[in-house]
Design brief:
The protein has about 350 residues and is of the alpha/beta class. The protein contains 14 helices and ten strands. The protein has three domains: about 200 residues, Rossmann fold; about 90 residues, no CATH class; about 35 residues, no CATH class. The C terminus is likely disordered. InterPro entries: CofD, CofD-like_dom_sf, Gluconeogen_factor.
Protein backbone atom coordinates (compact mmCIF):
# COMPACT_ATOMS: atom_id res chain seq x y z
CA UNK A 1 0.00 0.00 0.00
CA UNK A 2 1.14 3.60 -0.61
CA UNK A 3 0.70 6.85 1.26
CA UNK A 4 -2.24 7.54 -1.04
CA UNK A 5 -4.01 4.56 0.48
CA UNK A 6 -3.74 5.91 4.03
CA UNK A 7 -7.01 7.23 5.45
CA UNK A 8 -7.82 9.17 8.61
CA UNK A 9 -10.07 6.60 10.26
CA UNK A 10 -10.53 5.35 13.81
CA UNK A 11 -10.34 1.56 13.73
CA UNK A 12 -10.81 -0.84 16.65
CA UNK A 13 -9.48 -4.40 16.27
CA UNK A 14 -10.58 -7.08 18.73
CA UNK A 15 -8.93 -10.44 19.28
CA UNK A 16 -5.83 -11.99 20.73
CA UNK A 17 -2.61 -13.77 19.92
CA UNK A 18 -1.41 -14.28 16.36
CA UNK A 19 -4.82 -13.54 14.84
CA UNK A 20 -4.92 -10.04 16.31
CA UNK A 21 -1.28 -9.52 15.34
CA UNK A 22 -2.26 -10.19 11.72
CA UNK A 23 -5.19 -7.77 11.88
CA UNK A 24 -3.13 -5.00 13.45
CA UNK A 25 -0.35 -5.49 10.91
CA UNK A 26 -2.97 -5.04 8.18
CA UNK A 27 -4.90 -2.11 9.68
CA UNK A 28 -1.82 -0.03 10.42
CA UNK A 29 -1.11 -0.03 6.68
CA UNK A 30 -4.00 2.39 6.09
CA UNK A 31 -4.46 4.22 9.41
CA UNK A 32 -2.41 5.12 12.46
CA UNK A 33 -5.53 5.63 14.57
CA UNK A 34 -6.03 2.04 15.67
CA UNK A 35 -7.00 0.64 19.05
CA UNK A 36 -6.27 -3.01 19.84
CA UNK A 37 -8.69 -4.60 22.31
CA UNK A 38 -7.07 -7.76 23.64
CA UNK A 39 -8.38 -10.86 25.40
CA UNK A 40 -7.13 -11.39 28.96
CA UNK A 41 -7.82 -15.06 29.69
CA UNK A 42 -4.46 -16.63 28.85
CA UNK A 43 -3.34 -19.08 31.55
CA UNK A 44 -0.44 -20.82 29.83
CA UNK A 45 3.29 -20.30 29.45
CA UNK A 46 4.91 -17.10 30.64
CA UNK A 47 1.59 -15.26 30.92
CA UNK A 48 0.09 -18.00 33.06
CA UNK A 49 3.09 -18.05 35.38
CA UNK A 50 3.06 -14.28 35.87
CA UNK A 51 -0.68 -14.30 36.35
CA UNK A 52 -0.41 -16.96 39.05
CA UNK A 53 2.65 -15.54 40.80
CA UNK A 54 1.85 -11.82 40.64
CA UNK A 55 -1.90 -11.67 40.13
CA UNK A 56 -1.51 -9.54 36.99
CA UNK A 57 -3.60 -9.43 33.85
CA UNK A 58 -1.90 -11.97 31.53
CA UNK A 59 0.49 -9.86 29.44
CA UNK A 60 1.36 -12.13 26.49
CA UNK A 61 -1.35 -11.12 23.98
CA UNK A 62 -1.00 -7.48 25.05
CA UNK A 63 2.74 -7.68 24.35
CA UNK A 64 2.13 -9.09 20.87
CA UNK A 65 -0.31 -6.28 20.06
CA UNK A 66 2.25 -3.70 21.17
CA UNK A 67 4.87 -5.28 18.92
CA UNK A 68 2.46 -5.28 15.98
CA UNK A 69 1.87 -1.53 16.31
CA UNK A 70 5.44 -0.43 17.15
CA UNK A 71 6.85 2.49 15.21
CA UNK A 72 8.70 1.74 11.98
CA UNK A 73 11.92 3.58 12.89
CA UNK A 74 14.99 1.52 13.80
CA UNK A 75 14.83 2.29 17.53
CA UNK A 76 11.17 1.31 17.84
CA UNK A 77 11.72 -1.88 15.88
CA UNK A 78 14.65 -2.75 18.14
CA UNK A 79 12.46 -2.36 21.18
CA UNK A 80 9.74 -4.44 19.54
CA UNK A 81 12.29 -7.20 18.98
CA UNK A 82 13.44 -6.92 22.61
CA UNK A 83 9.82 -7.06 23.77
CA UNK A 84 9.27 -10.31 21.88
CA UNK A 85 12.57 -11.90 22.96
CA UNK A 86 12.09 -15.02 25.07
CA UNK A 87 14.68 -16.24 27.57
CA UNK A 88 16.16 -19.68 27.07
CA UNK A 89 17.93 -21.93 29.52
CA UNK A 90 16.50 -23.90 32.41
CA UNK A 91 16.37 -21.33 35.19
CA UNK A 92 13.58 -19.27 36.69
CA UNK A 93 13.43 -16.96 33.68
CA UNK A 94 13.31 -19.73 31.08
CA UNK A 95 10.33 -19.26 28.78
CA UNK A 96 9.53 -15.73 29.91
CA UNK A 97 9.49 -13.00 27.29
CA UNK A 98 11.10 -9.67 28.09
CA UNK A 99 7.88 -7.85 27.23
CA UNK A 100 5.81 -9.91 29.64
CA UNK A 101 8.20 -9.13 32.48
CA UNK A 102 8.37 -5.46 31.51
CA UNK A 103 4.58 -5.06 31.39
CA UNK A 104 4.14 -6.87 34.70
CA UNK A 105 6.81 -4.71 36.33
CA UNK A 106 5.53 -1.38 35.00
CA UNK A 107 1.96 -2.30 35.96
CA UNK A 108 3.15 -3.07 39.49
CA UNK A 109 4.96 0.27 39.74
CA UNK A 110 2.11 2.33 38.27
CA UNK A 111 -0.66 0.26 39.81
CA UNK A 112 -2.64 0.03 36.59
CA UNK A 113 -2.46 -2.15 33.46
CA UNK A 114 -3.68 0.53 31.05
CA UNK A 115 -1.14 3.04 32.36
CA UNK A 116 1.60 0.43 31.94
CA UNK A 117 0.53 -0.27 28.36
CA UNK A 118 0.49 3.43 27.53
CA UNK A 119 3.96 3.85 29.03
CA UNK A 120 5.46 0.97 27.07
CA UNK A 121 3.62 2.29 23.99
CA UNK A 122 5.55 5.53 24.31
CA UNK A 123 8.77 3.55 24.44
CA UNK A 124 7.81 1.84 21.18
CA UNK A 125 6.47 5.04 19.57
CA UNK A 126 3.27 3.13 19.03
CA UNK A 127 0.98 3.88 16.11
CA UNK A 128 -2.25 3.44 18.02
CA UNK A 129 -3.16 2.12 21.46
CA UNK A 130 -3.40 -1.28 23.12
CA UNK A 131 -6.07 -1.96 25.75
CA UNK A 132 -7.16 -5.06 27.70
CA UNK A 133 -10.66 -6.36 26.97
CA UNK A 134 -11.33 -6.18 30.72
CA UNK A 135 -9.27 -4.64 33.52
CA UNK A 136 -9.28 -7.97 35.37
CA UNK A 137 -7.89 -11.37 34.43
CA UNK A 138 -10.58 -13.74 33.19
CA UNK A 139 -10.99 -17.50 32.89
CA UNK A 140 -12.63 -19.46 30.10
CA UNK A 141 -14.91 -22.39 30.92
CA UNK A 142 -16.21 -24.71 28.22
CA UNK A 143 -18.73 -27.49 27.74
CA UNK A 144 -16.97 -30.25 25.79
CA UNK A 145 -18.27 -33.53 24.41
CA UNK A 146 -16.26 -36.50 23.24
CA UNK A 147 -14.14 -36.83 26.38
CA UNK A 148 -16.25 -39.61 27.91
CA UNK A 149 -17.07 -43.07 26.64
CA UNK A 150 -20.59 -41.83 25.93
CA UNK A 151 -20.20 -39.19 23.18
CA UNK A 152 -23.39 -37.49 24.36
CA UNK A 153 -21.98 -36.69 27.79
CA UNK A 154 -20.62 -33.19 28.23
CA UNK A 155 -17.71 -32.35 30.51
CA UNK A 156 -16.85 -28.88 31.83
CA UNK A 157 -13.21 -27.88 31.35
CA UNK A 158 -11.59 -24.66 32.50
CA UNK A 159 -8.70 -22.57 31.21
CA UNK A 160 -7.68 -21.15 27.84
CA UNK A 161 -4.96 -23.73 27.29
CA UNK A 162 -7.32 -26.59 28.15
CA UNK A 163 -9.94 -25.25 25.74
CA UNK A 164 -7.43 -24.65 22.96
CA UNK A 165 -5.93 -28.15 23.17
CA UNK A 166 -8.91 -30.33 24.07
CA UNK A 167 -9.31 -33.47 21.95
CA UNK A 168 -13.06 -33.16 22.44
CA UNK A 169 -15.56 -30.92 20.67
CA UNK A 170 -16.23 -27.56 22.29
CA UNK A 171 -19.94 -26.77 22.36
CA UNK A 172 -20.08 -23.56 24.38
CA UNK A 173 -17.75 -21.29 26.31
CA UNK A 174 -18.30 -18.91 29.22
CA UNK A 175 -16.22 -16.33 31.03
CA UNK A 176 -15.48 -16.40 34.72
CA UNK A 177 -16.52 -14.19 36.39
CA UNK A 178 -19.65 -14.27 34.19
CA UNK A 179 -20.25 -10.49 34.17
CA UNK A 180 -16.78 -8.92 33.93
CA UNK A 181 -16.37 -5.19 33.41
CA UNK A 182 -15.06 -3.61 30.25
CA UNK A 183 -12.62 -0.75 30.58
CA UNK A 184 -14.06 2.75 29.93
CA UNK A 185 -11.26 3.38 27.42
CA UNK A 186 -12.41 0.35 25.41
CA UNK A 187 -16.03 1.47 25.37
CA UNK A 188 -15.05 5.00 24.33
CA UNK A 189 -12.86 3.68 21.49
CA UNK A 190 -15.70 1.56 20.10
CA UNK A 191 -18.16 4.44 20.36
CA UNK A 192 -15.99 6.76 18.24
CA UNK A 193 -14.75 4.09 15.82
CA UNK A 194 -15.48 4.19 12.12
CA UNK A 195 -14.62 0.51 11.72
CA UNK A 196 -14.54 -2.40 14.15
CA UNK A 197 -12.77 -5.61 13.14
CA UNK A 198 -13.37 -8.89 15.00
CA UNK A 199 -11.14 -11.89 14.23
CA UNK A 200 -9.35 -13.82 12.94
CA UNK A 201 -7.96 -15.95 15.74
CA UNK A 202 -8.65 -18.86 18.04
CA UNK A 203 -12.41 -18.86 17.82
CA UNK A 204 -13.38 -19.99 21.31
CA UNK A 205 -10.51 -18.42 23.25
CA UNK A 206 -9.66 -15.21 21.36
CA UNK A 207 -12.71 -14.18 19.32
CA UNK A 208 -15.84 -15.26 21.20
CA UNK A 209 -14.74 -13.86 24.59
CA UNK A 210 -15.29 -10.32 23.30
CA UNK A 211 -19.02 -10.87 22.85
CA UNK A 212 -19.26 -12.51 26.30
CA UNK A 213 -18.43 -9.28 28.17
CA UNK A 214 -21.88 -7.64 28.52
CA UNK A 215 -20.69 -4.03 28.41
CA UNK A 216 -18.47 -4.77 25.45
CA UNK A 217 -21.25 -6.55 23.56
CA UNK A 218 -23.59 -3.62 24.20
CA UNK A 219 -20.98 -1.23 22.81
CA UNK A 220 -20.55 -3.43 19.73
CA UNK A 221 -24.29 -3.54 19.19
CA UNK A 222 -24.80 0.20 19.47
CA UNK A 223 -21.73 1.60 17.72
CA UNK A 224 -22.26 3.30 14.37
CA UNK A 225 -18.99 1.83 13.11
CA UNK A 226 -18.80 -0.51 10.15
CA UNK A 227 -18.30 -3.97 11.65
CA UNK A 228 -16.21 -6.58 9.86
CA UNK A 229 -15.84 -10.20 10.94
CA UNK A 230 -12.69 -11.82 9.54
CA UNK A 231 -12.87 -15.60 9.36
CA UNK A 232 -9.90 -17.89 9.83
CA UNK A 233 -8.19 -19.37 6.79
CA UNK A 234 -8.64 -22.88 8.17
CA UNK A 235 -9.90 -24.63 11.31
CA UNK A 236 -7.50 -24.81 14.24
CA UNK A 237 -6.38 -28.19 15.51
CA UNK A 238 -8.08 -28.69 18.86
CA UNK A 239 -10.53 -25.80 19.24
CA UNK A 240 -12.23 -25.96 15.86
CA UNK A 241 -11.05 -29.19 14.23
CA UNK A 242 -13.37 -29.96 11.33
CA UNK A 243 -15.16 -26.60 11.44
CA UNK A 244 -16.37 -25.13 8.18
CA UNK A 245 -16.62 -21.38 7.62
CA UNK A 246 -20.36 -21.74 8.08
CA UNK A 247 -19.89 -23.49 11.42
CA UNK A 248 -17.72 -20.64 12.72
CA UNK A 249 -20.59 -18.25 12.04
CA UNK A 250 -23.19 -20.44 13.70
CA UNK A 251 -21.08 -20.75 16.85
CA UNK A 252 -20.65 -16.99 17.10
CA UNK A 253 -24.38 -16.49 16.60
CA UNK A 254 -25.16 -19.01 19.34
CA UNK A 255 -23.00 -17.07 21.79
CA UNK A 256 -24.27 -13.62 20.72
CA UNK A 257 -27.70 -14.15 19.10
CA UNK A 258 -28.54 -10.44 18.77
CA UNK A 259 -25.20 -9.37 17.31
CA UNK A 260 -24.95 -7.94 13.80
CA UNK A 261 -22.02 -7.18 11.52
CA UNK A 262 -21.86 -5.56 8.11
CA UNK A 263 -19.28 -7.72 6.36
CA UNK A 264 -18.00 -11.26 6.80
CA UNK A 265 -14.59 -11.42 5.16
CA UNK A 266 -13.65 -14.87 3.85
CA UNK A 267 -10.53 -15.92 1.98
CA UNK A 268 -11.68 -16.87 -1.50
CA UNK A 269 -9.59 -20.04 -1.61
CA UNK A 270 -10.89 -21.36 1.70
CA UNK A 271 -14.49 -21.80 0.53
CA UNK A 272 -15.03 -23.22 -2.97
CA UNK A 273 -17.74 -21.79 -5.20
CA UNK A 274 -21.05 -23.58 -5.17
CA UNK A 275 -23.19 -24.94 -2.35
CA UNK A 276 -20.65 -24.19 0.38
CA UNK A 277 -20.77 -20.50 -0.40
CA UNK A 278 -24.55 -20.65 -0.35
CA UNK A 279 -24.37 -22.09 3.17
CA UNK A 280 -21.95 -19.36 4.27
CA UNK A 281 -24.23 -16.66 2.86
CA UNK A 282 -27.15 -18.13 4.73
CA UNK A 283 -25.20 -18.22 7.99
CA UNK A 284 -24.00 -14.65 7.44
CA UNK A 285 -27.68 -13.72 7.28
CA UNK A 286 -27.81 -14.37 11.01
CA UNK A 287 -25.80 -11.16 11.39
CA UNK A 288 -27.41 -9.21 8.54
CA UNK A 289 -24.02 -9.37 6.85
CA UNK A 290 -22.70 -9.41 3.32
CA UNK A 291 -20.04 -12.03 2.58
CA UNK A 292 -16.90 -10.59 1.02
CA UNK A 293 -14.64 -13.11 -0.75
CA UNK A 294 -11.06 -11.94 -1.34
CA UNK A 295 -7.60 -13.44 -1.59
CA UNK A 296 -6.17 -12.57 1.84
CA UNK A 297 -3.92 -15.57 2.48
CA UNK A 298 -0.16 -15.32 2.77
CA UNK A 299 2.69 -17.62 1.77
CA UNK A 300 2.75 -19.19 5.24
CA UNK A 301 0.06 -21.77 5.93
CA UNK A 302 -3.04 -20.42 7.64
CA UNK A 303 -1.61 -16.91 8.06
CA UNK A 304 -3.28 -13.82 6.58
CA UNK A 305 -1.19 -11.61 4.34
CA UNK A 306 -1.02 -8.16 5.95
CA UNK A 307 -0.90 -6.23 2.65
CA UNK A 308 -3.81 -8.12 1.10
CA UNK A 309 -5.92 -7.93 4.25
CA UNK A 310 -5.06 -4.25 4.68
CA UNK A 311 -6.21 -3.40 1.17
CA UNK A 312 -9.58 -5.09 1.66
CA UNK A 313 -10.19 -3.55 5.08
CA UNK A 314 -9.16 -0.13 3.76
CA UNK A 315 -11.67 -0.42 0.93
CA UNK A 316 -14.46 -1.46 3.31
CA UNK A 317 -13.56 1.33 5.70
CA UNK A 318 -13.68 3.81 2.83
CA UNK A 319 -17.31 2.84 2.16
CA UNK A 320 -18.25 4.67 5.34
CA UNK A 321 -20.55 3.92 8.21
CA UNK A 322 -23.69 1.97 7.36
CA UNK A 323 -25.87 4.11 9.68
CA UNK A 324 -28.35 1.44 10.66
CA UNK A 325 -29.55 -0.03 13.95
CA UNK A 326 -27.87 -3.22 15.11
CA UNK A 327 -30.35 -6.03 14.75
CA UNK A 328 -30.58 -9.56 13.56
CA UNK A 329 -32.14 -10.49 10.29
CA UNK A 330 -35.55 -11.94 11.09
CA UNK A 331 -34.89 -15.65 10.84
CA UNK A 332 -37.15 -17.93 12.83
CA UNK A 333 -35.70 -19.88 15.71
CA UNK A 334 -37.16 -23.05 14.25
CA UNK A 335 -35.35 -22.49 10.93
CA UNK A 336 -32.04 -21.65 12.61
CA UNK A 337 -32.20 -24.72 14.85
CA UNK A 338 -32.41 -26.94 11.77
CA UNK A 339 -29.16 -25.65 10.29
CA UNK A 340 -26.00 -27.72 10.67
Amino acid sequence: MTDADVVAADVVALGGGHGLYATLSAVRRFTSSVTAVVTVADDGGSSGRLRTELGVVPPGDLRMALAALAGTDARSQLWAEVLQHRFGGNGALAGHSVGNLLLAGVAEVLGDTVSALDEVARLLRLEGRVLPMSPIALDIEADVVGLESDPRVSRVIRGQVAVATTPGKVRRVRLLPPDPPAGPEVLAAIERAEMVVLGPGSWFSSVLPHVLVPQLLHALRTTAARKVLVLNLAPEVGETTGFSAERHLHVLSQHAPAFAVDDVLVDSASVPEGSEREHVARAAGLFGATVVYEDVSGPRANVHDADKLGRVLSRLCGQGRPGRDDHMVDISRKERSSWP
